[in-house]
Amino acid sequence: MTEAQARMDEDGRAALAVISANLRMAGNNPDRPWRVQPSKRNPVYGPSSYAVRGCDRKFDNVGTAATAQDLVCDAGGVAAPDSIAVTYEADRFNTVALPPGGAPTDCLGKPLDVINADLPVVVPPGPNATTQTVTFHVAENRFYIDSPGPDAAPSLYCKGNGASSTPGPLVENVEDLHLTFGTVPAAAPMDTANIAGYLNASGVVNHTALDPLDEAARWGRVAAVRVCVVVRSDRPVVGGEGSARFLKCDGSVENSPPDARLRRTYSTTVVLRNRR
Fold first, then answer.
1. Dist. CA 170–CA 155, nearest whole Å
2. Pseudo-torsion of CA 184, 190, 195, 198, nearest 10°?
């Protein structure tokens, strides 16, 4: 029992750490030296871009959508684990860089494509700007719950956008992922406003407090994310249904667990640092 609990704690912390690290980088797109307006930052985001985008179930096309803009949220009525896509400007310091050149990577360690853009750059000592080709990278990582087969352990999965990247498991025995989004009202300034409340993904898309914003702009009002995962033991370890009961991410008690495994919830709240 003690060994099972220790393994669950390790898996729960690992799942939260991976998702939290990505959320803290969501929207990363820093100002660059020797640039002039309106090109101080690399052109990572446009009006229809997403730094974060969630779904109350798994995205229908989580493994095939070209970008976060193309993701389609499953409209089915059956309760299922949530999913989320996170994007940010990546470099060798905020990803696991590949030797020898330090190429930045996605969530599964696949190298990201180089993006080129022609932008005005001031060449020292200046002061005039000339058009130069700059390079940068963008990571887009999608997190969700899946399993490789009907009898295999459910796991936290990720689909990245690196070269030849395919979905892969990150942490085993993660059964559920529940996300709520701390949202700022439509007219409030992002840098000073307080979070008005936490909504699920469908609430972000449909709540009247965010009218008349389009969907991309609505997700741009998310300033924090509450993350909860349910982790199970890798084998049955309890003697009866009463001992297998557990507190779910929504705060209710599961009185009819499916088997004799231990289950526990792990949660955290992450502030999105790069909103502006």
1. 7
2. 50
Q: Where are the domains of the chain?
A: 1-271
Tokens of 257: 């667990």
How many Å from the N-terminal Cα to the C-terminal Cα in the chain?
47
Query: Computed over its alpha carbons, how large is the radius of gyration of the chain?
Result: 21
Of the candidates 140, 45, 47, the one whose C-alpha atom is nearest the C-alpha of residue 85 is 140
pTM above 0.70, yes or no: yes
The one-letter code for the residue type at 121 is V
- pLDDT per residue as tens digits for the range 48-67: 999 999 999 999 999 999 99
Tell me the C-alpha to C-alpha distance, in Å, between residue 170 and each of 96, 146, 184.
15, 11, 31
Distance of CA 25 to the CA centre of its chain: 9
CA 34 vs. chain centroid, Å, equals 31
